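Could you join me in thinking about how sequence relates to backbone shape in a protein? We need material for that, and I hope you will provide a protein of your own picking. Label the sequence line and the structure token line clearly, so we can match residues to local backbone shapes. Would you write everything just below, so we can both look at the same thing?
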Amino acid sequence: MPESISVRLGITQTIPCQYIDGEFERLVVLAAEEIADDFKYRHLLAHGFRRCGDSLYAPHCPECKACVPIRIPVQDFKPSRSQRRVLNAGDRALTIEVIDQLDRSAVYPLYKRYVEIRHAESSMNPVSYEQYENFLFSHWHQPKYLCLYDEKTLVGIAVTDYLEDSLSAVYTFFEPEYDKLSLGTYALLKQIEFAKSEQKPFLYLGFQIDKCAAMNYKTRYKPYQMLENGHWNQYE
């Protein structure tokens, strides 16, 4: 069971859900007067929270429980046959570098192309630089960036929060023309490898949402754990 932590929280207004048509969403968020830091973050992460920009939040919807926090126990993870094929193809074609600092303005065009082509119908589009900054980056937490290169060309970035006892996969974006290499899957598998190499027990993936095509893939990475009724239950 996640360790207890005492923080002040707030609840947002109820608005139409961005993931499931006909549903409504509401969030519980770290209160504005609370000073966010990595200590609070890692404890709230274990309680089902997620970071978006400077905010820490979790679903607190009136009548829907579709969003279920999910994480990978990386030491137990075993890639499937298809995931091994993705890893082998990516390792042959690409190189990967983990960095602490990112030239945000230089990689924004890559993010913009990705969202406009892969998520044209989502609430993320139309894209703006302000939305990009407010979504991925934080004043109080420094992510790491897993950068994918085709020779010297940057073709993908996985924004990954690095904490004392875990990693959290924040967002991955890549050149849409490299879709044949399944870069989203490849980047997630490399984040699992990175967590294992850094001896972090868990990689958090955010929320599994079975009813949303863009958010129902996370149970393909096995075993996985889901936070249900305050307990992390493992599924093989």
Q: What stands out?
A: Helices lie at 38-46, 81-93, 104-118, 129-136, 183-197. The chain has a mean pLDDT of 95. The longest strand covers residues 153-163.
